[in-house]
Amino acid sequence: MRMASLILGIIAVVGMFIGFIPCLGWFNWLNLPLAVVGIILGAVDYNNQSKTYLPPTEYDPNYVVIKKPFPLGLLLCGIAFVFGLLRLIAGGGVI
Length: 95
Description:
single chain, mainly alpha, 3 helices
């Protein structure tokens, strides 16, 4: 799911930049649902990662700290959603 969120995030950011071109602001109407799906996939994946591994106690000689990977797809989709929505508001597409 993390890879799907990342792919949707990259597509959403490219779509956001297309929506910034004058006379193509309507493209954000297509881009926002894509960004929302990417946000949902990224949030579900980020939430499920904490349930997959419980580290042993500190006193165990095999103690390993595993950090969660950075949710880049979630970040990209969030940026595309916020700036795309602001572009729609500024252009009069959302009142």
